[in-house]
Amino acid sequence: MRMTARGAATRLRLVSGAALLMREQGAAETNLDQVLRATATSKSQLFHYFPDGRAGLLVAVSAYEAEQVMEAQRPYVDDLSTPESWRAWRRAVLRHYAELGERCPLGVLTSELGSSSPEARQVVSDLYDRWEGALIAGVQALIVHGTARSDLPVRDTARSILTAVQGGVVMLRATGRLSYLETTLDTTLEPLLGTP
Amino acid sequence: MRMTARGAATRLRLVSGAALLMREQGAAETNLDQVLRATATSKSQLFHYFPDGRAGLLVAVSAYEAEQVMEAQRPYVDDLSTPESWRAWRRAVLRHYAELGERCPLGVLTSELGSSSPEARQVVSDLYDRWEGALIAGVQALIVHGTARSDLPVRDTARSILTAVQGGVVMLRATGRLSYLETTLDTTLEPLLGTP
DNA sequence: TGAGCACTGGACCGTGGCGTCCAGTCCCGC
DNA sequence: GCGGGACTGGACGCCACGGTCCAGTGCTCA
């Protein structure tokens, strides 16, 4: 689809506006009219940019939110080669979820958007792959660096960390408490960084 | 509401039937007509037992599924006083999720039902409290038993285990792989049971 | 500058799905 | 065995919400 700068801006306004609404009140509770009102657009514009309607919008929101999840961990997640960068990463993650609380992109991605369509599911699963890849590289680097024991199972360790974040976010959404994420992250990172 | 045996059976048929449908296809994708067809009941029966309609049914399903989550861990979760019972508990949990896969009560509880209404949210949060309580008692017992170090933070350890299960289930639902749960559970239980 | 297509506005439509109503049946307690 | 309330059946109403249509407007590029 050819698009002018103005068109691209409208499209982005729709996606980011929809994403925000869905974070705050859930995807299922967000209807198209709300999105249109919040973004000052009309129905025909929405269907112009998303011929598949709501379904297409959900996929775009998924991709947008997946990007936000990675963005929140930058720049650290891109280079987890030292204990310092791991610690900085941990701080960044905790800060992000402390700020957003239950209204985080990851929460709505895993619990709602991911199961809305095969395409959205693919987006979520791609996110996990990228994320796991970054963590694997980081664990590997710490072994080379000598901080972590060389017999550490690299992939399993990375997956544990990913799982810890997921679990922490679920509990955050359910209880409003950040402590689950903090504690579990500490436990899981211990073999990598030692007791802080 | 007064109820005869027959009425109670009808009510239970509605709740358990709805729960099954919602596990398999999600709560949002399950409408009342499907529930009625699956349970061989009629709309007036449903509204007879659930005057609040769909909302009330969702709360009842939440309570039912919360009970299923605990039931799946029985009898071990009620007495985690020895390393053997902890190991048996771990096996029971893994077997349960290996069997049900993505169609587990916990998954639909956390991702859909829990946010459907304040009442349902309360049910979910009560479940977590009960669960955490059982784990705390178990960790405490292992310390008394001498298996676990006495300086282990009891509540934090219990919460880590709970978070590990949650994270593992999220990843199971997203990827279909049980390994996340297995690995993370091992890591988290290590300070309690040592390397198996 | 003007032709054509991207872009916009908003009225309109169909329907899936929740909830209501009422008439009839069955069972429990006296 | 009989009165009343628990229980059942299914037709009906209503409306929120996703999606369509078409008539304009204004940018872009030759």
Q: In percent, how helical is the residue content of chain A?
A: over 70%
CATH class annotation of the largest domain in chain A:
Mainly Alpha
The counted number of beta strands of chain A is: 0
The low-confidence runs of chain A, each spanning 5 or more residues with pLDDT under 50, are: none
CATH fold title of the largest domain in chain A: Tetracycline Repressor, domain 2
Overall geometric form of chain A: elongated
CATH architecture descriptor of the largest domain in chain A? Orthogonal Bundle
- Main beta sheet of chain A: none
Mean pLDDT of chain A: 93
Radius of gyration of chain A: 19 Å
Overall description:
- Two copies of one chain form a homodimer.
- With 196 residues, chain A is an all-alpha fold.
- Chain A folds into two domains: 5-53, Orthogonal Bundle (Arc Repressor Mutant, subunit A), CATH 1.10.10; 64-193, Tetracycline Repressor, domain 2 (Orthogonal Bundle), CATH 1.10.357.
- The first copy, chain A, is 73% helix and 0% strand.
- Chain A has helices spanning 5-25, 32-39, 43-49, 54-71, 83-100, 105-111, 118-145, 154-175, 179-193.
- In chain A, α5 (83-100) packs antiparallel against α9 (179-193) and α8 runs antiparallel to α9.
- Chain A is elongated and about 60 Å long.
- Chain A binds chain B through residues 26, 28, 110-112, 114-115, 121, 124-125, 128, 156, 159-160, 162-168, 170-171, 173-175, 179-181, 183-184, 187-188, 191, and chain B through 26, 28, 110-112, 114-115, 121, 124-125, 128, 156, 159-160, 162-168, 170-171, 173-175, 179-181, 183-184, 187-188, 191.
- Chain A binds a DNA duplex (30 and 30 nucleotides) through residues 1-4, 6-7, 10, 31-33, 41-45, 47-48, 53-54.
